[in-house]
Amino acid sequence: MESISTFSTGTKQVNAGVGRAIHVEQQLTRIIPQVLLSVSSSELSRTLRRALAISEHHQRRLAKNYEASAGSFTDSIADELEKQICAVAGNHQRGCVNDLTYTFLITKVIQYKMSCYEQALEISEQKNLADPQRVLGAALSDEAATALFLEELAERLFLRQFPGHASMA
């Protein structure tokens, strides 16, 4: 049986990981509305609206289930991706290449968010914290599905722009 202090430390570590995930979720909810103004693909627009709804849902669920917040949390990887996305949005260009760029960058943000969830899940498994596993596992599953769809969409956009190429892989 684990001691209360070990349990408390595990909970704090999970909350720190969840705080990082909340930070990235908040960044995504700030970024996506800007991106939607510049997107030309209806498929990408629908996918981003869905990703926005999922991100907002995750923020509510995480706030309800954890004593974690993004607070003044900073994260160089997520912050750099946000800067890159804002730079593309600042160009006010539209078209397939722009959509491909957004798809690539948003996918990177989602993959990073997945790593935050995976780290918090790993800690919760090590510390036998069952409740976080359910909530974090569901969030991770949502993110994996969104990332996969964005990767498939990127390939379709690429093939539309460069029809002579059989695959991006």
The third-level CATH topology is Ferritin
Number of helices: 5
| Radius of gyration, in angstroms, nearest whole number | 18 Å
State the helicity in percent bands. Answer: over 70%
Main beta sheet: strand number and arrangement?
none
Element-by-element helix/strand order: HHHHH
CATH architecture: Up-down Bundle
The CATH superfamily label reads Ferritin, core subunit, four-helix bundle
Strand content: under 5%
Shape: elongated
Comma- or semicolon-separated keywords:
169 residues; mainly alpha; Ferritin; 5 helices; 0% strand; disordered N terminus
Written description of the protein model:
By secondary structure, the protein is mainly alpha-helical. The chain has a single domain, classed as Ferritin (Up-down Bundle), CATH 1.20.1260. Helix content is 80%, strand content 0%. The protein has 5 helices and no strands. Helix 2 packs antiparallel against helix 5 (130-161). The longest helix is centred in the N-terminal third of the chain and has 33 residues, at 4-36. The radius of gyration is 18 Å and the shape is elongated. The model is unreliable at 1-7 (pLDDT under 50). InterPro entries: DUF892_YciF-like, Ferritin-like, Ferritin-like_SF. It comes from Dyadobacter soli. This is Ferritin-like metal-binding protein YciE. Pfam families: DUF892 (PF05974).
